[in-house]
Amino acid sequence: xxxxxxxxxxxxxxxxxxxxxxxxxxPHKFEIVDVKKLxxxxxxxxxxxxxxxxxxxxxxxxGIAQAAMLSNDKDFFDNLTDxxxxxxxxxxxxxxxxTGIDFVLNALKKESKVSLARETAVRRANLYADMDASxxxxxxxxxxxxxxxxxKVSTHCNAGWLAFVDWGSxxxxxxxxxxxxxxxxxxxxxxxxxxCQGANLTAWELVNENxxxxxxxxxxxxxxxxxxxxxIVFVGADRIARNGDIANKIGTYSSxxxxxxxxxxxxxxxxxxxxxxxxxxxxNIPIEERDENEILYxxxxxxxxxxxxxxxxxxxxxxxxxxxxxxxxxxxTGIITEMGIYPASYDGVTQILSKVKKx
Length: 359
Hints:
By secondary structure, this protein is α/β, with parallel strands linked by helices. Helix content is 38%, strand content 18%. Helix 6 links the parallel strand 6 and strand 7.
């Protein structure tokens, strides 16, 4: 997508170096980070220098490819297995991370020669990234048809192109409707405490795409729904269970319940790589609990232009920082994937999976 009239992807690989946009510094500073080894990639995923379901899925794929490029021949396959184990531990909720790792690692089991395995690893990682971008564009095509001209759209967290390799999931229908269908839209952007991915990242994307929007506190969404000022809701997902339940950024459940009570369509947009076919329901999705300091402190830019962190809570107070919540399928109008729009149900998810071709 566009940053100051230049096209970027969120993450890509240049020889043995993984290059990614530093999302910790946005919206105040645009910076590309060069990740040269596994420990740096693990830290980037953990501290959310790179974040978002699809983006960390690509990071997992590129991480295996990088390990393949840097590993010696003697311990090659053992080193890749170890790299995969370490990467899996970085973020427990997002299914795409595991999908990306397995997409590359499983293909290497067929290779007997290390030289061929290295080539396969890089090729598969790049293919995974391309598939993520292509899937998200298709989500935009399907989802844009749900949006009427002059609609007011609500979204939560950042499920735009920064959260994927390109296009995004929840914002992809918005981008497609504006870019390809010339629709006029307005977006209400939940700030998404505690890390404010909506206020920092989604709003930054919309500024770069010249799409009208307002940032609102998370608790304002329900009031706007009650006042009939929101026409449709698009959110992403970090994992979709077999029965249609989804896990997404904390606060998604609240938005879904209020949308349901006000008869507002609530759609979940995510590529097939987000579906966990082995997860029966939302009750089985592991929910990440993050560092309390993300709630106790905020980061911003002062009037002098310096980016700094300040404490907003009393010394001695502690915080519970639950990163995700589960939204039951009954509150979801439909799931938008690259395969089309399907009901949030066991049958709907089964239909989606039946259309997937192995690559």
